[in-house]
Amino acid sequence: MIAATHQALTDGIQVGTFRADPSYRLNILNIALPPLRSARAT
């Protein structure tokens, strides 16, 4: 399963808008990618 979001799930867990148990299962591998707007066209 691949999941993506633009929101920080750790913040959502602390606030209570995201449950902790799915986060535990989804948090196997984190890949931080820069936003596309920061990429320069050559």
TrEMBL record:
PROSITE patterns the record matches: SIGMA54_INTERACT_4 (PS50045)
Residues spanning the membrane: none
UniProt-listed GO biological process terms: regulation of DNA-templated transcription
Signal peptide start and end residues: none
Single annotated GO MF: ATP binding
InterPro entries (UniProt xref): P-loop_NTPase, Sigma_54_int
Ranges for domain Sigma-54 factor interaction: 1-42
Name of the protein described by the UniProt record: Sigma-54 factor interaction domain-containing protein
Organism this protein belongs to: Caballeronia sordidicola
